[in-house]
Predict the structure.
Amino acid sequence: MNNIFTVKDLDLYYGDNHALHSIDMAIEENRVTAFIGPSGCGKSTLLRCFNRMNDLIDGCRIEGNIEFRGKDIIKDKVDTVELRTQVGMVFQRPNPFPMSIYDNVAYGLRCQGVKDKKVLDKVVEESLTKAALWNEVKDRLKSNALRLSGGQQQRLCIARAIALQPDVILMDEPTSALDPIATSKIEELMESLKKDFTIVIVTHSMQQAARISDFTAFFLLGDLIEMNSTKEIFHLPKDKRTEDYITGRFG
Amino acid sequence: MKIENQIEDYHKVLVEMSLRVRSMMVKALDCLSSGNKEVALHVVEMDEFINHEDSDINDRAIEVLSLLQPVASDLRLILAGIRISNDLERIGDYAKNIAKYVIKNNVNDIMYSQDMVAIGNIFLRNYDEALLALKDMSVELAYKAPANDDELDEAFKVYGSNLEESITKNEAHLPLATFSILRNIERAGDHTKNVCESIIYAKKGQHIDFG
């Protein structure tokens, strides 16, 4: 198995706040990796390092390195626009653009200069199909994306990320604003998406991490406490703090 | 409903069941020694209670599994507990079987009845170690009881072949009762080893086979 990301001795500061402490980890390709831990433990912060989203935060300083397919994306000169097409992101609240379903999915490609309608049609259909949304929206591609339900909007955001054919999809609590049915659709979708993509997901639901991920990393107060196969973490965690957290005896 | 409390109660019920099973076996050996049929009858009645406790533990396990989604050590204890209560229930059955032979026969007619009480006491000594291991969920103690089980197997072999000899010489009285009682004690020892295996699984997630 290949590691798509390798994090080495990564420290992150928000001003004086030392938010991540010498993190070392590897993310395997075509696998779902879940980050769990209490609020403020640094899991979302680390997730955002993978496509340099922290660059947008004032006073954020990163030391150490993250290799993406062997290239250091922290120190080396990186085109963040290109990086973010390779490493897409889906957020907690669905954030479709206020435009049609079709235009949402085609947006990224159009930004890259693709104008050929045949190409766009094909990518839109493929992306919506992969995001398990095509059958629900194929007859109303021109209608406003904001009219979709929350769960559909989130799958649309996934389709929009997929359209750029990224290698990795980062998901920051993608189902926390959704009902159980929409959640289970997204979870099913992740299972099918990992054939083509690597998925890293931040989740507050331990059951969700247990259900969908191959690997789980547990964070606490900026430290990576333990990372292992999800089966090991939920069956026989090595660190007492992991055990206490996943069995609900924390705090 | 806090999972800590549920798990604590679950463990407590398991320990209580193991104590009750112990008292059943003590009584079964007492009546084997004294021939007291009233005590033997009481042992048979106690079995109902043990069966009920086994079902209760299963129901508690189902409740925790379905409502609280236990993981890690909690989940392992729940799974181990289902197995332990099943093993305890079987040990209870063996005590009941011994008591039934006492009810049906005059103990003085059963060959080696007093020797078998002594063998039963070896079982009890091992069982007590397993019981302590269960009470403290101690891996160290869980290795002790199985280590001494060979004594029980050896006694079963020796008395088994003595019995066989008596049968061939046509000198045996109630050989079926003698053999069955010996067998029941030996099997109870095997289930004690299973209990220890389950304790080790609950604590360390390892599958040990004491044979």
Summary: The CA atoms of residues 41 and 99 of chain B lie 7 Å apart. The mean pLDDT of chain B is 94.
